[in-house]
């Protein structure tokens, strides 16, 4: 069992790990941001109008590619 303040290695377990602490003055921050993204995907519909309705309601079949185009607002920023 790990003691308090002792780092637990999780990389080998496939769980990822927390960022390594830095001695160069940088601090780690977690954030939540509202972003504009561009997506490419597929939707099943009877016609283009219905397809647009599904897409606007986030009801698509598959997303093939997604890229962030712009950060609109940083909603939360917290030092880890």
Number of helices: 1
Largest sheet geometry = 2 strands, antiparallel
Proportion of β residues?
35-45%
The number of distinct β-strands equals: 2
What ranges have pLDDT less than 50 throughout 5 or more consecutive residues? none
Give the rounded overall mean pLDDT. Answer: 83
Label the structural class. Answer: mainly beta
Shape, principal axes of CA atoms: elongated
Compile the SSE list and pairings.
Elements (H helix, E strand, L loop, with lengths): L28 E14 L5 H9 L5 E18 L1
Antiparallel strand pairs: 1-2
Short description:
The protein has 80 residues and is mostly beta strands.
Question: What does the model show?
Answer:
This protein is mainly β and 80 residues long. The chain contains one helix and two strands, in the order E-H-E. The two termini are 23 Å apart. The mean pLDDT is 83.
């Amino acid at each position: 069992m790990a003691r308090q303040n002792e780092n637990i290695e999780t990389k080998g377990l496939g769980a990822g790990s927390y960022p390594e602490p830095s001695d160069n003055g940088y601090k780690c921050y977690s954030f939540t941001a509202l972003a504009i993204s561009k997506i490419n995907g597929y939707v099943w519909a009877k016609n283009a109008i219905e397809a647009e309705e599904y897409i606007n309601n986030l009801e698509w079949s598959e997303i093939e590619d997604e890229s962030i185009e712009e950060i609109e607002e940083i909603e939360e920023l917290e030092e880890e």
